[in-house]
Amino acid sequence: MLKLPVNSIRNTIFIRLVATYLFVILPLIILGVYLYNWSYQYASQEVSKNSQAQLSAYLDGLNREIEWLEIQQYDILQDEELNKMVLTWDMMSTVERKASLHYLLPRLVSIKNSSVYIKDVFIHIRSIDKTISAMTAMNAFDSRRYNHVFAGEANGNQRLLQIDDTFHLVAAKYGARKGEEPLLIVQIELDASKLRESLMQISVYPESGAFIVSEPSGFALASHEEADRFMKEAVQAIQHANRQILNIGTGRYLIDKAYSDKLDLSVFTYLPTEAVKRPLSKFYVWAWLFAGTTLLAIAIYAVSTYKLVHKPLLLLVQSFRKMEDGMFNIRIKHGQRDEFGYLYDRFNQMLIKLQHLIDQDFRHKLMMQRAELKQLQSQINPHFLYNSFFILSSLAKTGDVTQIELFTNMLGEYFRFITRNDADNVPLLEETRHSRIYTEIQKLRFSRRIRVEFGELPKEMEAIKVPRLIIQPIIENAYEHSLEKMQDEGLLRVSFHLDDQEASIVIEENGNGLTDNDIEMLNKRLERTAESAESPEVTGLINIHRRIALTYGESSGLVLSRSPLNGLRVQIRIRLTEGNEHV
Known about the structure:
18% strand
């Protein structure tokens, strides 16, 4: 597969063509998303506006109804026949008592029938131990109801009194003596079922619901069972929330609220946001269909552009690069008679002519130079090169200019050392510096997984002349064949040792890729200094071993053993003789 360096992808014609297409299409997609969100917001605002108007009208109507009931309540408190019963009941005859009762009951029934919200009307008269009801006429004194309403009436700061699961209106008449219990109490019990029906009327959508909440007592009444479950789960969150749209449980709801300071009541409605979005569902489907079609068009355009333009052009660029590297026997085949076919044909003809000239005048010299170049290039690991450019690309994306500058300087030093051909042997100081640069570059890839302990080079060893690239390839093998594959934290350690007769460099790691038998076999191959090996790892070690042995004698070279870190330990031994430890 044809590849360009990562940092040059952004400069290709292919990327520019795709970017131009995206520049045209993306605004349309963004406009569609904006229109959908705007429509949803507008619909939500309209629904809330209508709900707010309904809630306010509902509370106003409920307040007028309560005011009417209060007028009826206080009117009956002033009724002469009722007051006569309270004050003279013991002195009244049975006929007079029946007459008063027959007069009073129709009045209570009339009050009850004056509003659909009334369930019953009670008059509690403690002095005669009687409770008169519009539904059940005269009964024994209902002390439980009396105590409830008397406590609420004595509190005096609520128009609607909560008893059990509904609301009550209470009015009392007292005697002349201060501190006495009231002569009578008129209690109007509101019908909870009728209140629920009224709440159902303001629940416009099937999924919506409504409920009333009494602010002082926390009493709440919902329009139906589903609303009642929702209310129990969400009432606290709704009362203290400032936002109109809330996440309640696993759903998202549009909440509207109105408050009546006269009744000290709040009424809420809720509506799932999905119900608001439902009218926009067709638009939503078409928007996604448009987006999917657009992405498909982008993919088709990108693939066709890649095949018709980018791939042929990339093939030509790669062929030029191979030609620059000294490969003149390449030919480009193209089955179509288009512009690229013409370019490929001219390129092939140019290579034929160029190779003919080289064969005539410079073949011998070029072959020698190519051999030297291949020797140097064989020392460069292409995976390391690719990874280096990947690191550089990642740093560029993060915008870390300091790290980019540091990394490029290290990479430049690395390749400068590898590609220099002025001397076969270099001071150990330079070889060590090159190896340090290599480990610093690798730290950018494996800083969290691999730790490096690089010892200091003694001053006495700095000037020792050694063959180029004897430390870094061993470190590279440790990374590639052991440390990169570890699940746990890797450790690489480089140390230097010097005595009167020998200088040694020890590279060791904590990997577990080799058994003791494998290490023994490697030592035997190094002893035979084989011309070839079964793996690149062994070939590299043999190459280093042979060069050191040729330079310093057969007693010098590589010694492999098991490291105290549990991995492979490679010792580079250099037998010192007079003249090779200093420049």
